[in-house]
Amino acid sequence: MSRHARDDNVPLNADATSSRDLALEVENLRTVFHTEHEQIHAVDGISFNIRRGETVGLVGESGSGKSVTARSILGLIESPGEIDPASAIRFEGDNITEYTESEYESIRGDGIAMVFQDPLSTLNPVYTVGNQIKEALSLHQDLRGTAATERAIELLEEVGIPDAARRVTEYPHQFSGGMRQRAVIAMALACAPEVLICDEPTTALDVTIQAQIIDLLMDIQAERDLSILFITHDMGVIAEVADRVNVMYAGEIVESAPVEPLFAEPKHPYTRGLLRSIPSTQTSGDRLETIKGEVPTPNEPASSCRFAPRCTKSFEECSEVAPTPTAVGDDPDHDAACLLYPESMTTDEAVAHHRPADDGGEQ
Amino acid sequence: MSGESSGGSETSPEMRNISDSNSTANDDVLLSVRDLKTHYEERSLFGGDPVRAVDGVSFDVRRGETLGLVGESGCGKTTLGRTLVRLEEATDGNIVIDGDDITTLSGDALQRWRRDAQIVFQDPESSLNDRLTVGEIIREPLNVHNWKTPAERRQRVRNLLERVGLREEHYYRYPHQFSGGQRQRVGIARALAVEPDFVVLDEPVSALDVSVQAQILNLLMDLQEELDLTYLFIAHDLSVVRHICDRVAVMYLGKIMEFGPTEQLFQKPENPYTRSLLSAVPTPDPTVERDRTTLRGTPPSPRDPPNGCVFSTRCPAKIRPDGFEELSEHDWDAIEVFREVLRERSRTDPSLSERARELLGLETRLPDVEEAAGELFASRSFPSDVQEPIQQSIEAANDGNEEHAREIITAALGSVCDREAPSLLATGRTDSGRSSRCHRHKEEYADPDASRSDSPQS
């Protein structure tokens, strides 16, 4: 997590968690999509990790690269998309970006499982829910026949579906939205994964059902010591579930911090703007604070701050220097990529701090 | 958004309905909805029960206000909005404006209402025709209503583009060239083209990112002030509703559960459903202590709403029948879940192959309800007046008679909530304009714990 420890590749300081406690480590991940006219840098050099039993949030607006990050971790990027060979995603000691498809299959589900936003697109409409869970069980746990059926019923009960013995014989269309998402979670659990990636798992659900699913995920996590990567655009949900949060904007992580300092003292102007545009944080009837403009498409390598055109605090250098994550605030884990920091420096010094060392300050 | 409403002399809509059925007394009322029902009939071979999307709602919309309509998906809020602008036909009841009943309008009068009332749809991706330019899209309602001359129409479209924060040169662009927020601006411009008085905003910002959502909400508030618009704001996002609405109606399964001025309703919700709904909203503050009532299960089907209170299958404040006070919450919960299981089972239609098996005299039974009951009631011991009806009910269900099984339980363990539909009662201070649909508001059923869960949102 701490940038310095990473640069030296040696865990010098005490807060560099030993790699055994890390369930997943993403290092300088770049995922590029090549189109006819341009290259889209959907994920552009992000680094974060997930410790065992922890929930890490990835939050951002649509187009910020959250879902591409998830798909990159699971090896689901297909042409014209490509993961930069210099990227590393470490799981159980291996850099899985180097895996072949069949090696990937051995960890997908078993090691890292995923819950998608729309349960209907995850479930196959022509098989019963039970058959789909049994398929996962036979692939990953080598269970078949009655044993598999019984295990499937247990899993449905575990995710809080009443009358599971009957439900197991039903088709996805006979389930309500919340029940379907529970069934998808049951399928993910069938493989007994270490890491669960939840990509907007509650976005399609009503708020009372969302509360049920969040409770369920937290219970399962406590029971199984799961590590969860929770992707959402909803700051309220993030505040509730995450231990640490990464805020993404146009393919980059602009701020990362444990959840409490992030909400108490957001440092990056984008995070601040995002929090202020939530209606419940403002007095009713007033005009809402907004961030002008819209999220840009990152179609060239970052040579400047991508948020600068929308930022109220931007100055000349913001369009010349790409900021790097810098420690801000009291918490050692609190980083922001913004030329305003470190606060202890003058603006010139801070700009020099962010300027890449190798191009001698010329740009 | 004009702050708290000024009226202050309102009683609950239904009570108003009794005292003054034409509601002409209050001249700031734009629109009176009385006992409105919109049902969808099944057009299949077997007929079947209609979907009671909107099932008897009454309220007034005041001139210049923003009335919020909130609820979960399937509660009928969108159908209600669409019925008001005559995109759906009402099954029963009336919608009265200036003495005319909108549900029966036809010809010129209907045409006029379709100009005065407009709607902005939720999904800006699907509500704009991709083959028309933005200019043509906004101009379409002007053409339909034969508004002034073509040259004036073009000018009007240009003004509208600018008014909603787009630029004149966007006239000749196509919707796919715009982002979601910009497309929603186009949808708003189209709705405003024919100078309506009343606009139904059907989830206008729920498909947008939060920073863009704030821009659109600001735009809507500005336009309302400038053009004297009356809004019906349909949303499931409660924080947005709290921000923008003057008064709020909370819907569940086709009925209004609670109605009142926004701030009061959010600070001190009276209805158990509103309380649970508010407590389920995640707050963007990790230090907040959560005192959440997570609701069990999902709303029942609007084809087959519960006999008593529509919320009785999930209600955390459900009244128990006399004599069962000593049963623990968990035990009582298990019984409610068991009833839900029976309910679900009795609703399951047999599939074609099951029907065929039945004709051939083969085994068709669902897995025994005993297994589900065993899972639910394991490690629980009930007194005999609870145990016996449960046992009888399990036996009835095993004989394939789920309906009878449900009746046994309701007769033995049901309460007023299962038998009688509560009416919308005035609550709060006499002139607060608040009302709520719950038996707990009657003195004999007052909930001793109600004060505990007040103001889940502060």
UniProtKB/TrEMBL annotation, chain A:
Gene3D superfamilies: P-loop containing nucleotide triphosphate hydrolases. GO terms for cellular component: plasma membrane. It is a peripheral membrane protein. It holds the Pfam family oligo_HPY. The lineage of its organism: Archaea, Methanobacteriati, Methanobacteriota, Stenosarchaea group, Halobacteria. Keywords: ATP-binding, Cell membrane, Ion transport, Membrane, Nucleotide-binding, Translocase, Transport. It is found in: Cell membrane. The complex is composed of two ATP-binding proteins (NikD and NikE), two transmembrane proteins (NikB and NikC) and a solute-binding protein (NikA). It comes from the Archaea. GO terms for molecular function: ABC-type nickel transporter activity; ATP binding; ATP hydrolysis activity. Residues 24-275 form the ABC transporter domain. InterPro entries: AAA+_ATPase, ABC_Ni/Peptide_Import, ABC_transporter-like_ATP-bd, ABC_transporter-like_CS, Oligopep_ABC_C, P-loop_NTPase. GO terms for biological process: peptide transport. This is Nickel import system ATP-binding protein NikD. It catalyses: Ni(2+)(out) + ATP + H2O = Ni(2+)(in) + ADP + phosphate + H(+).
UniProtKB/TrEMBL annotation, chain B:
Residues 1-14 have a biased composition (Low complexity). Residues 441-452 have a biased composition (Basic and acidic residues). Residues 1-24, 277-310, 420-458 are annotated as: Disordered. It comes from the Archaea. Pfam families: ABC_tran, oligo_HPY. Transmembrane segments: none annotated. InterPro entries: AAA+_ATPase, ABC_transp_ATP-bind, ABC_transporter-like_ATP-bd, ABC_transporter-like_CS, Oligopep_ABC_C, P-loop_NTPase. Keywords: ATP-binding, Nucleotide-binding, Transport. The keyword Ion transport does not apply. NCBIfam families: oligo_HPY. GO terms for molecular function: ATP binding; ATP hydrolysis activity. GO terms for biological process: peptide transport; transmembrane transport. Belongs to the ABC transporter superfamily. This is Peptide/nickel transport system ATP-binding protein. Residues 31-278 form the ABC transporter domain.
